[in-house]
Amino acid sequence: MNQQQMKALAVMAKAKETIADSPLVEVSKPKAKPVIAEGTFLAVITNAEKSMENTRFGENLRLTVIFSVIKDADKEPIEVRQYYWFNPKPDSPFYRHFEIMLGKDPTEIFVLKHIIGGIYEITIVHAITETGTYANVDTLKKVLINPNEDTEEITI
């Protein structure tokens, strides 16, 4: 054994001594952080999708609605994904929100893509769970914007 190899064994022995003194490092998945602060904002539904998900209760319909939130007129909108489990109870988030978005009973047949382009005033609240903090749409109110509001109509 040469001198470099002997030195390597000595350094290794010293390193192993420090292992016992080293604190335990716990590696964990980073917790989720909300994409937007709590508050009331103007938002446009820019997409909506449906999927069937396996849950502990069996296969369930999940609807994903993407709101583009206008927080600052000078900046790009913030995308907030809101997930809804189909639930026919009138007090469920699905029922309350889709009744407003559709303008009718959401347990009747509807075309999901028809909600795209809708403009709403939404209230964001944070939900804190074991996996992190999430931005959720708590309430929404339909907003009607007249595109001709700022122009004069001229009839000839």
Shape: elongated
Question: SSE order in H/E notation?
Answer: HEEEHEE
Spans with pLDDT under 50 lasting ≥5 residues? Answer: 151-156
What level of helicity do the residues show? Answer: 10-25%
**Which sequence of strands runs across the widest sheet?**
3-2-1-4-5
CATH topology of the domain at 39-142: OB fold (Dihydrolipoamide Acetyltransferase, E2P)
What is the rounded Rg?
A: 27 Å
Please describe the biggest sheet, giving its number of strands, its sense, and whether it closes into a barrel: 5 strands, antiparallel
Tally of alpha and pi helices = 2
- N-to-C terminal Cα separation, in Å? 103 Å
Q: Which whole number gives the mean pLDDT? A: 87
CATH class of the domain at 39-142: Mainly Beta
Instruction: Please give the CATH architecture of the domain at 39-142.
Output: Beta Barrel
**Percent range for β-strand residues:** 35-45%
Kindly list the characteristics that best describe this protein:
156 residues, OB fold (Dihydrolipoamide Acetyltransferase, E2P), elongated, alpha+beta
Summarize the entry for a quick read.
With 156 residues, the chain is of the alpha+beta class. It is built from 2 helices and 5 strands; from the N terminus they run αβββαββ. A 5-stranded antiparallel beta sheet has the order 3-2-1-4-5.
